[in-house]
């Protein structure tokens, strides 16, 4: 597969690549602030896989078209974070850590290694594992090691009922399977990204225009922040832990341990969401505000493209309706990106 950049001496090529990189950055920002914000509000367990997978696909494409890959990806990262903070302020600070890790690790890989080798697979595997480990660490910090003890108690009780005994703890089994799923998904994501880049690079470059403009001025209703969801998740998790200790834990545990877990997790949760989270978000916001004036035009241009991109994605979904299953999904993703990066705003 040949890279799009064949000569750096031709200004039209560089100009075209800049336009493509700007649109890929806008798509990345839409993914983080739109889809990412939506999934974070509903605490979807698949946020890391879906949003992270699309993010590293767009980072890979920026590297594919950019001459200076490190500079292009880091510039795009700053623009994406500024837009994410403006459009999706309810995202947790851990989401900013994941986005930054994906971008910096991708910039490092593509600046030093060819994307044709194992680079895409390494990028997919490492970023997915980072996402999985980040969730496990967060869970352990908030609920303590007692959460895993409770899982082991349930596991031992189920084994006893089934007359099945193993030396492997339930926690070890769950964590191993969880990390293994993310690792395999990371490898598959790397292979998928490679096939998407292949489809896009083999297409003939043609400008894409939209004829429908009915909903371009439609304002998106602001999403209600569902803070109570955090409380419900905490209550449900605490109930699981307490039941394990109080009912199945025997005399070694009991209510004293349960009360300790309630108070501890409540305190950590308050510190996490009312102290640590706001402080980290404020530090990130302070850093991004310094960069905002420098990229003001890029940010405005990217956000202006959002309504068009939503229409293009909707159009492409209908356009690929003759395909089925995985083939449709693959060509929907590839064609959506291709149409977006070659989109021209209609004049008049």
Rounded mean pLDDT score: 80
Based on secondary structure, the structural category is mainly alpha
Distance between the termini: 38 Å
Low-confidence stretches: 1-11, 216-226
Taken from the alpha-carbon principal axes, the silhouette is globular
Number of strands: 0
Our estimate of the beta-strand percent is under 5%
Sheet having the most strands: none
Number of helices: 11
Share in helix: over 70%
Helix and strand pattern: HHHHHHHHHHH
Determine Rg (CA atoms, Å).
23 Å
Secondary structure blueprint with pairings:
Blueprint: H1 11-41, H2 47-65, H3 69-87, H4 93-112, H5 115-143, H6 145-161, H7 170-201, H8 228-248, H9 255-292, H10 296-319, H11 325-341
Describe it for me?
The chain has 348 residues and is mostly helical. It is built from eleven helices and no strands. Helices cover 77% and strands 0% of the residues. The chain is globular. It starts with 10 loop residues before the first helix and ends in a 7-residue tail after the last helix. Mean pLDDT is 80; it is low at 1-11 and 216-226.
